[in-house]
From TrEMBL, chains A, B:
Record keywords: DNA-binding, Transcription, Transcription regulation
Comp. bias (Low complexity): 172-189
Key word Nucleotide-binding present: no
UniProt cross-references to InterPro entries, sorted A to Z: HTH_HxlR, WH-like_DNA-bd_sf, WH_DNA-bd_sf
Pfam families per UniProt: HxlR (PF01638)
Entry superkingdom: Bacteria
Protein name: Helix-turn-helix domain-containing protein
Domain HTH hxlR-type: 11-108
Region (Disordered): 160-189
This protein's record includes keyword Transcription regulation: yes
Length: 189, 189
DNA sequence: CCGGTCAAGTTCCCTCAAGGAACCTAGCAT
DNA sequence: ATGCTAGGTTCCTTGAGGGAACTTGACCGG
């Protein structure tokens, strides 16, 4: 979709947004997760062009996020259902819903409510730390390159600035990943 | 960006993805949140066209997600920093990172690690229920229309199918929202 | 047997936005 | 006065998205 294949960049956000960072995909996933899996229903509900819908769906199937399943044999009819991988995207959707509700809810209140069926209550999804279970906020989290990080592809080059700004907690990435963008002019300058 | 202004649809995901559902925006936010706020650095790090970067940044500023701030007067230099609204998007980014790490990490391990500075440990962000504090999964959450929901704009029409599939927990949305897409052929058929 | 319909796509054409790269403008710096 | 750097704008071309019609395969009614 993008000229420079974002997916080639070894950054999790890039990988995820290459798939998900498209106006329609999130909406499609919302609908499919809610059980709306048929082509025509999706097209109608979203007002999306059928061509684009077909492209998105087959992409999502290729990525293993959706599964195309025959729900009826005679006449043969297919529907799309989320795979496990797809279901795990719900955290992203919930975060998106929550943010949208918080910042764009009108006078009437939020357009969407999330219910946690397990406990039976409406809920506000909270992102928490797997270790201490406290809520995570932007101010107390730091994203660092992990063992699989690569340099030079235009991602994670920002780490240098990070460690320059904050206390030098543990600036050593995996072998020398913390290289500044400005240290590596793009070969032509 | 999209022909049919998604933002006009009273769905939180639509509102959020109209802004965020673009391949670059998430990446820009990642960088800005990490402290990389200068135009040239962003352009270089992302490999994005300067034109598009300028457009995205001014959109993000208009939306109140970023603030354009002068960090030096002589010569005048500006940088972009996340506002509170912008910082709250970190939950979405964390969810995206987590998902990307889980499903696209190579042999070497995840390209990105998230550290929770408050507790000092690397963390896996977990989406939890604000009420019972248990993790939320796709299978035990239901998205229902809330008080601010509207009908007919091609969103949340899926509720009918939901209540048809599952146990009839509480199928009554706010006044008659639960209308099926197929009950309302789009005026021409 | 023939036309109609429905689901699930495809195909075609056209426009508009993204990409790329060059150009511009303010303030220094030399 | 010339150059450099940060922070954009402008111009041109390509290609993805929108819209809508067409296709395919199977059932349905007469």
């Amino acid at each position: 979709m993008t000229r420079v294949r974002l997916a080639d960049v070894a950054c999790s956000i890039a990988r995820a947004t290459d798939l998900f960072g498209d106006a329609w995909t999130a909406l499609i996933m919302r609908d499919v997760m809610a059980g709306l899996g048929r082509f025509d229903d999706l097209a109608r509900d979203l007002g999306i062009s059928r061509k684009v819908l077909a492209a998105r769906l087959s992409r999502l199937v290729d990525e293993g996020v959706l599964e195309r399943r025959r729900y009826q044999d005679r006449p043969p009819r297919e529907e799309y259902v989320p795979t496990r991988k797809g279901k795990e995207l719900s955290a992203v959707l919930l975060a998106l819903i929550d943010w949208g509700d918080r910042w764009y809810a009108g006078e009437d209140g939020p357009p969407a409510l999330v219910r946690h069926d397990a406990c039976g209550h409406d809920t506000t999804p909270v992102m928490t730390c797997s270790h201490c279970r406290e809520p995570l906020t932007a101010d107390d989290t730091t994203v660092r390159p992990g063992p699989g990080a690569r340099v030079g592809t235009g991602t994670l080059l920002l780490v240098d600035r990070l460690s320059a700004d904050g206390p030098p907690g543990d600036p050593s990435g995996p072998e020398g990943v913390a290289r500044s963008a400005r240290d590596a002019p793009s070969s032509s300058a």
